Amino acid sequence: MSKLRILYAIQGTGNGHVTRAIEIVPLLKQRADVDVLISGDQWDIELPFNITYRFKGLCFYFGKKGGVDVMNTYLRMNSLRLLREIKSLPVHQYDLIISDFEPVSCWAAYLAKKPCIGLSNQAVTLHPKAPRPRHIDLLGKLVLEHYAPVSAQYGFHFKSFDSTVYTPIIRQQIRDLKITDKGHYTVYLPSYDDARILKHLKRFKNVEWQVFSKHNTLKFKHNNIVISPIENDAFIKSIASSHGVLCNAGFGTASEALFLQKKLMVIPMKTQYEQHCNAAVLKSMGVGVMKSLKKKHYDKLEKWLENGQAIEVNYPDNTAQIVDTIIENHLTNIFPATEGLLYA
Fold first, then answer.
1. Looking at the predicted structure, is the pLDDT value of residue 6 above 90?
2. Which of the two residues, 131 and 90, has the higher pLDDT score?
3. Spatial distance between the Cα atoms of 131 and 173, rounded to a whole number of angstroms
4. For the segment 137-162, what is each residue's pLDDT rounded down to a tens digit?
5. Torsion over CA of 202, 67, 313 and 136, rounded to 10 degrees?
6. How far is the C-alpha of 308 from the C-alpha of 188, rounded, in Å?
7. Contact 87, 105 (CB under 8 A)
8. 20 to 30 A Cα–Cα from 316, which one of 36, 81, 111, 215?
């Protein structure tokens, strides 16, 4: 029997998909020949393996006021290029396609009528058992349902809802960290620019803030706030020794903060329905949620700084089990293709 050939596709908007791949791809390589695809250019962490396909894909770009930069995203969007990328991907060469919310691979498989397995937080964001935000963003829901269509799905969330929903994959680099508390707060809000973050956080003069920025390449200090460019080792060292973490309601940083037993406050990005769904789940667990980084929400931030508590979670290392389950189910046809795209 020839060795299984797998295409593993990574969404390159943000670092969460990339850190998950760092754990999953080596395990897949133990079981199969694996080619890696990544689309987008909004990631900051170096991948320790070769990338076979690099595409522009369909990427969202961070803004400076708490949401996606809609204009920049629109100007960089090229439907013809995206279609060429989809058509150029030789999905017929692979026995198994696994996509972490990556659209080129998903649509290439869809058009070729090949099964594609979704493996991401987004795959279960709309799970019927998951808490939802009060306001249902119909456009955002539509994007989640159709952005990266899959025929079968396994997903991750901050807590499990059923047998195909796993707790987060925590990279080994985080699991190996020594947890301390040096009193500072680690901040990662890539959808806000540095000036806006400084304007609001400087109000809390007795707090030491360590801010990691996607908008600056130089490190500088302003009173009680240190702004640093994104650098993986410095970032995780800051989180591991922090008293708390303030971040957007993406999946990666929030999961790692919870695992490291840090108290957590999240601010979901505007126009990102996925993050509002994440925030609803986190809120149900007791995590602090702010609607936005504005003066009218200072009271909530102040209360969290004074009284916020870490939430106890259990995130075992089940990555090998997930990989084995997917391959076994693919090879034995135990896992049937689901009708439609994602959860309605």
1. yes
2. 90
3. 30
4. 777 788 788 889 999 989 999 999 88
5. 130
6. 18
7. no
8. 36
Whole-number Å distance between alpha carbons of 333 and 36: 24
Q: What is the pLDDT of residue 340?
A: 36
Sign of CA dihedral 149, 153, 154, 158: positive
Residue 178, amino acid: K
Q: How are beta strands 33-42 and 5-13 bridged, if at all?
A: parallel
**Residue 314 Ramachandran class (φ > 0 left, ψ -120 to 50 alpha, else beta):** beta
**Residue 307 burial by Cβ neighbours in a 10 Å radius (0-12, 13-18, 19+):** exposed
Please give the C-alpha separations between residue 27 and each of 8, 31, 166, 223, in angstroms, as whole numbers: 12, 7, 17, 45
Q: Which two tokens stand for residue 154?
A: 């396994």
Give the CA angle between residues 35, 148, 267 to the nearest 5°: 105
**What would the pLDDT profile of 203-245 be if each residue is shown by its tens digit?**
999 999 999 998 888 899 999 999 999 999 999 999 999 999 9
CA-based end-to-end distance of the chain: 39
Q: Where are the alpha helices (DSSP H) in the chain?
A: 16-29, 70-76, 79-88, 103-111, 138-146, 172-175, 194-201, 232-240, 252-259, 273-285, 298-307, 319-332
Name which of 9-18, 81-90, 101-110, 220-229 the model is least confident about.
9-18
Q: Which domains, ranges and CATH numbers included, belong to the chain?
A: 5-170+316-332 (3.40.50.2000), 172-307 (3.40.50.2000)
- Chain position carrying tokens 């900051």: 44
Residue length, the chain? 344
Count of CA atoms in the C-beta half-sphere (13 A) of 284: 16
- Rounded to whole angstroms, the Cα distance separating 58 from 80 reads 11
Rg (CA), the chain: 20
Task: In the chain, count H helices and then E strands.
Answer: 12, 14
Q: How far apart are CA 128 and CA 277, in angstroms?
A: 12
CA distance 262 to 39: 32
Burial class of residue 142, CB neighbours in 10 A (0-12, 13-18, 19+): exposed
The C-alpha angle 254, 142, 24, rounded to 5 degrees, equals: 40
